[in-house]
Amino acid sequence: MIKDIMDDIISERKSKNIEDDYGIQNCWNKMIDILSKDINETVAYLENCSEEDIYFISEVFEDVSEQLQSKEYIECLRKLDDKFPNLDMTKDINLAEEYI
Questions:
Q1: Left (φ > 0), alpha (ψ -120 to 50) or beta: where does 43 sit?
Q2: What distance in Å separates the CA atoms of residue 63 and residue 75, rounded to the nearest whole number?
Q3: 60 DSSP assignment
Q4: Distance separating alpha carbons of residues 23 and 13, to the nearest angstrom
Q5: Which residues, other chains included, contact 50 with Cβ-Cβ below 8 Å and sequence gap of 6+?
Q6: Which of 13, 42, 53, 82 is 20 to 30 Å from 3 by CA-CA measure?
Q7: What's the rounded Cα separation, in Å, for the pair 84 and 11?
Q8: How far apart are CA 95 and CA 99, in angstroms?
Q9: Which tens digits make up the pLDDT trace of 9-25?
Q10: Could you tell me if 77 and 45 are in contact, meaning their C-beta atoms sit under 8 angstroms apart?
Q11: pTM assigned to the model
């Protein structure tokens, strides 16, 4: 279920012009809402995401962390950082960790 919803949101986010601040923020808010509902669903979903999807989701790592307040979430992000080193997410993950 979460995958279908997130696929739609990520697709919408990809279609936004880089200067469409309102549209991008709206996509981020949707992602934050979905990913902040259930830690177990979120971790399971993230573990199966593509590199491209993680790239877009990484834009909201900190906000989701603030909502979830979960070390399990941070551990999941660290595994994703190892899995997708080209995304260079370490700084984002460190910042997300500060939110818990």
A1: alpha
A2: 16
A3: G
A4: 8
A5: none
A6: 82
A7: 20
A8: 7
A9: 999 999 999 999 999 99
A10: no
A11: 0.94
